[in-house]
Amino acid sequence: MKQFYLISFCCLILSFSNNLFAEEETNDNSTTIILSLAQDPSFGFYPFINGSVTLTNSIDLTFYGIFWTQDALAGKEGGLGLLTEFGIGANFKFADDAFFLNPNIGLGNGKFQSGGGRHVVGDNIAFSLFTGYSHNNFEIAGGGIYWKGFRREEMISPYIDQIEYTLSSWYKANSWFSIGLYFDHFLITEDDKQTKDTYTGYFWLGPAFKFTAKSGASMWFTFGPDFVQYLNDEKSATIQDYYKLVASFPF
């Protein structure tokens, strides 16, 4: 029943948002969708979609979907039952759109965080908050995501909670090239009913390079050291490598 109440709540929020801003809608009520393809050594390959619908001059309805493709997220069944995530939120814009604040709530479906017993709706609930500021040629953006395990099914694998927070800064050298700095920390909590163990999945910090086409499509790449072994106090810890590639296409 938990997932029924959550879905009903999301529908209520959508209906409320539509009524609340009906009198303030802009004339164009524009909608934007961005398809992105990402790959890194931790999450593997994962396409995701971000979209927004203009409600007022300062507020957008936002929505997103993530196609998690790592086989480990489905219990190693050749891709069947892969974790699928969908969410909605609102984007609040301030200071002539120079600053934004975007909270979201999402629903993950699969069996990765709920014990691995069976594929379920509501494997996790994802709470996220993203913010950013831009001025002239400088941009800075940050965000945090909390994937909270929602269902508690048969424990074939531990119950899992996950937290990720990121920070990136960019300097726009010209109309097509930007250089920046990227930081990303990922934490995992495993619960096997006997003990809870929280550890770092990765800790990335490195340079980033972005190329942007006239159409708005972009591709960015970052690489550098991963300090995961040091944060987990491993014996004979060494610095690992990370790399991440993201290509985005607006529609």
Descriptive notes:
By secondary structure, this protein is mainly β. It has a single domain, classed as Porin (Beta Barrel), CATH 2.40.160.40. Helices cover 9% and strands 59% of the residues. The protein contains two helices and twelve strands. Strands 1-2-3-4-5-6-7-8-9-10-11-12 form a twelve-stranded antiparallel β-barrel. The longest helix is centred in the first third of the chain and has 19 residues, at 2-20. 20% of the residues are buried. Mean pLDDT is 90; it is low at 19-27.
Unreliable runs:
19-27
- Helical amount: under 10%
The residue-averaged pLDDT reads: 90
Helix count?
Answer: 2
Q: Give the tally of structural domains.
A: 1
Summarize the biggest pleated sheet: 12 strands, antiparallel, barrel
CATH homologous superfamily title: monomeric porin ompg
First-residue to last-residue Cα separation: 37 Å
Instruction: Compute the CA-based radius of gyration.
Output: 19 Å
Q: What would you call the structural class?
A: mainly beta
CATH architectural type? Beta Barrel
Q: Give the strand order, joined by hyphens, for the main sheet.
A: 1-2-3-4-5-6-7-8-9-10-11-12
Count the E strands: 12
Quick summary:
With 251 residues, the protein is mostly beta strands. It contains two helices and twelve strands.
List keywords for this structure.
single chain; 251 residues; mainly beta; 59% strand; 2 helices; Porin
Topology:
Layout (H helix, E strand, L loop, with lengths): L1 H19 L10 E10 L3 E11 L4 E9 L16 E11 L4 E12 L9 E16 L2 E12 L9 E14 L4 E15 L4 E17 L5 E9 L1 H4 L8 E11 L1
Antiparallel strand pairs: 1-2, 1-12, 2-3, 3-4, 4-5, 5-6, 6-7, 7-8, 8-9, 9-10, 10-11, 11-12
